[in-house]
Amino acid sequence: MEKTNRRKTLALISIMLGAFISLLDTTIVNVALPDITVALHATSQSIEWIISGYALAFGVVLILAGRLGDRFGRKNLYIFGILLFLIMSITAGYAQSEESLIISRVIQGLGAGLFFPQINAVIMDMYSGKHLGKIFGILGSVIGVGTAIGPLAGGLLIELFGADNGWRAVFFVNVPIVLVTLVLAMLYLPKHQAPKEKVRFDIPGVLGLTLALMMLLYPVISRGSNGFRLVDYIWMASSIPVFLLLYWWSVRQAKRGKQPLISPNLLKNQPFVSGMVLSLVYFAAFTSIFFILSVTWQTGFGQSAISSGLAITPFAIGSVLAAANSNRFIMKIGRKLLHLGVVLVIIGLSGVSLVFHLHDGVFSAWWMALPLLTAGIGSGLIIAPLNSFTLSTVVGPERGGASGMFNTAQRIGSSFGIAVVGSVFFRTLDHTTAHSKANAFSDSLQMSMYVNIALLVVCFVLVFRLPRKI
């Protein structure tokens, strides 16, 4: 029994490290972009793709990776994805041109997209009941830390290794973490159980899903916060009939007794779909917080990357503390905990907005500490229980596909959140040119916070569609 528990613990460490490093890489590179521009003589378009290429590949492959894990083994897909991520981290660190760095980042995102859906699925395979909620609490802490600590970690590495080599260290820092992850995964992740049914590969479903997600995400990620053109709206709207056609194909395949890429049973699971939509909307608000605060802090107030990371640290601390203890609360009060979390995030962001509103030319990150800590606590009470509420409604061989769909919703939410909130931020900034630079950024951040709060109100309503208890 003790040996079994030890194996489970080491397997858990492996997948938590994978979750940490994949989300760390969504934010850690941001602070290195100025040095990359100088070192590789990169254009602004190439710089955008160093970030967006990773996010696009990550988001597009998630559902397919989840289904592949169902069919061919979560351990196999996890190890393959981690190995690909490792190789591309090394090639990115040694990149000698903007083109080679973009290629490395895209394939690195592909690797992250392959192994990330296996994390939730492996957790559900190994744990159940109250233990499942506890582990999702740990995962929520890891997600919060991985996302929030990126700018600070990147700033520290650049400060330590200098402008010439610091940006390369941002990629090389992955290597020791991923090596440990890989070894633990090979030794301790549960072995693949051969499926009872004959494995079928839904090629039309794969092509349809890839096309639909590309049409939806490419304009959002490539345009970012620069605002959408008419062609971008047309491109995104065109994804709707492709998604509908994919749904029709999935239903048709299921009626014939075949195995579609997206199971219609998942789409008929109301609590699962509600949780997926809630996750999409929440991540639209959650991820954009770091983007607009980092831009305001560094560009508006002329602070360093390290200072920016330290300023946001209270959010990460609050998120870790709350997520680690969320399971004991969720077992007592059920989905009301999610409502409490949303309210705390709204209060925290309102506090941040008020701090900037009262700014009078002298600013301190200490003024943001309490509001960000409050918002972080709220976030920690949301992310982990949301995983539990949503994914606990799925059993059996559909867990990998469900995990892929759930994580895809988060990536879509993050992309749209940064694009929409960032667009509001910069458009407001353009209309405040009469102000001082710092005041203009303060006004823009306030407006962006209002958008985030509106998204969180939608989250509050969506929580009612989740089950009362796990």
Explain this structure.
The protein is an all-alpha fold. It folds into three domains: 1-201, MFS general substrate transporter like domains (Growth Hormone, Chain: A), CATH 1.20.1250; 203-257; 262-469, MFS general substrate transporter like domains (Growth Hormone, Chain: A, Up-down Bundle), CATH 1.20.1250. The chain contains 19 helices and no strands.
Helix and strand topology:
Blueprint: H1 2-24, H2 33-40, H3 44-60, H4 62-72, H5 74-93, H6 98-126, H7 129-148, H8 150-172, H9 174-188, H10 203-223, H11 230-237, H12 239-255, H13 264-268, H14 270-300, H15 305-333, H16 336-357, H17 366-391, H18 399-430, H19 437-462
Helix pairs in contact: 1-6, 1-7, 1-9, 2-8, 3-6, 3-10, 3-18, 4-5, 4-6, 4-18, 5-6, 5-8, 5-9, 6-18, 7-15, 7-17, 8-15, 10-11, 10-12, 10-18, 14-15, 14-17, 14-18, 14-19, 15-17, 16-17, 16-19, 18-19
What characteristics describe this protein?
3 domains, transport, membrane, 81% helix, Growth Hormone, Chain: A, transmembrane, MFS_trans_sf, 470 residues, MFS, 19 helices
